[in-house]
Amino acid sequence: MSDVEPEVADADAVERAESDADETASRAVENPILEVEDLEKRFGGIVAVDGASFAVEQGSITGLIGPNGAGKSTTFNCITGVHQPSGGRVVFDDEDITGDEPHQVANRGLVRTFQIARELPEMTVLENMMLAPKNQIGESLWRSVLPYFRDEVIEQEEELRERAWETLEFFEIDHLAEEYAENLSGGQRKLLELARALQTEPEMLMLDEPMAGVNPTLERKLLDHIHELREQGYTFLIVEHDMDVIMNNCERVIVMHQGAVLDRGTPAEIKANEQVIEAYLGGEV
Ligand SMILES: Nc1ncnc2c1ncn2[C@@H]1O[C@H](COP(=O)(O)OP(=O)(O)OP(=O)(O)O)[C@@H](O)[C@H]1O
Hints:
Layout: H1 4-27, E1 32-43, E2 46-57, E3 61-65, H2 72-79, E4 87-92, E5 95-96, H3 102-107, E6 110-112, H4 125-131, H5 141-144, H6 147-170, H7 186-199, E7 204-208, H8 216-231, E8 235-239, H9 243-249, E9 252-257, E10 260-265, H10 267-271, H11 274-281
Parallel strand pairs: 3-8, 3-9, 6-7, 7-8
Antiparallel strand pairs: 1-2, 1-4, 4-5, 9-10
Helix pairs in contact: 4-7, 6-7
Bound molecules: adenosine-5'-triphosphate.
């Protein structure tokens, strides 16, 4: 054994450590709006989410991907209060929201597109928009009998109507305002779903398969709107099976496999990970 070998080995170790540190730095989330720590969800004997940890950068479009059964929907459900997690923590805007009810999570500004009741088919697009917002005074009927609150309700309704029109114009579906929701195409319904979510004035939107059943023209439109909204400061976390949509539109991607996070990073980093490729091909990871 020469004296040189340990030096070379040390040099290798240092290089590896530096490259690990670089990788960690490049993959770190600097300004997280959402932090999921050691999330667990069990259904009887089934472990649907098994210690998943990740963070979502404020103002980013982040993709959450993984093969069927990886635990993506259950993770969404645990974050948004649909399911009570069996363990772990969810922090939004520096506040612990673990176990909050869905309406509490929405009121904090974290909204999932189909968390708000799906659009009501026998109501018009505009009526659907008017029903979406949170903290609507009009919902508390008793208040409307009091003169003071009646004025406030009228004022709030006018504001809501104005905002509804603005949002419908933004999504270019204002010409459909008087149309019954049941007459909309699949893609137009997705736009309405997103428009309704925006009526709640969220900070972050979680979209579950937004492109499913959407034709290519509307898909482009939907993506353009998502990018425009991101530029306005909204954050998006998107579960989507269409890899082209994820890889071409997300700055960051989180990969789940068997209930845990397998990798996270830029699309290029994710595409280069053989474990990810194997997970998708069904190989052992
Ligand atoms: N309510 C439930 N009761 C029992 N098991 C469940 C329940 N919900 C989900 N699971 C199981 O948990 C695991 C994760 O499911 P989940 O739907 O979260 O995966 P996913 O990544 O969203 O899959 P997909 O891409 O197919 O929608 C699966 O094995 C599923 O069968």
